[in-house]
């Protein structure tokens, strides 16, 4: 089922649109503030965001920037601010569409469908698959046998580094420079070994006898399974 995060503080409009969207078969989570929206976004996976601009604790543009730091999920702005400056700002900050109030439910539903179709096409072209490991590069979701894995940011960066260079021996120094270029943390070879161990525990059937990330003594590590992209 398609899950939509609906951020709108107008109670009457919020209930009316929520009812219409649920009636169309969408799973709706509604937030009335940016704080609530951030809380929902951090805990759940959504397919699309409907976002008001004027909110009690800030504006939707700030939340859009927050979302874009982690996801390319479609965002449709819903607002009474119909001047060109605001529309351009919303789109430049990462919004996919901009619908000014008042609007018809039919038009909103049509625009939602357009964004979902477009995003689905992007996802299909941005997927890495290696045996039973699947990575959606658009959403950054990682699955093992269709089960969503909970990876940290560094574990995800390590995984992508390996999967984009299958069957290539990667030296520890090269791995360290790749995953720490923008990280202001203490990170050495011992720390790398710990992260490799943790990543193996999440993706391998038998972490003590790994098939994906193998150790090449004196060289580093290698992704030892074929990878294809779709």
UniProtKB/TrEMBL annotation:
Record-linked PANTHER family: ALKALINE PHOSPHATASE SYNTHESIS TRANSCRIPTIONAL REGULATORY PROTEIN PHOP, REGULATOR OF RPOS
Residue intervals of the Response regulatory domain: 3-116
Protein task: May play the central regulatory role in sporulation. It may be an element of the effector pathway responsible for the activation of sporulation genes in response to nutritional stress. Spo0A may act in concert with spo0H (a sigma factor) to control the expression of some genes that are critical to the sporulation process.
Protein name: Stage 0 sporulation protein A homolog
4-aspartylphosphate: residues carrying this PTM: 52
UniProt keyword terms in alphabetical order: DNA-binding, Phosphoprotein, Transcription, Transcription regulation
Native organism: Romboutsia maritimum
Gene3D superfamilies listed in its UniProt record: 3.40.50.2300, 6.10.250.690, Winged helix-like DNA-binding domain superfamily/Winged helix DNA-binding domain (1.10.10.10)
Gene Ontology terms: cellular component: cytosol; protein-DNA complex
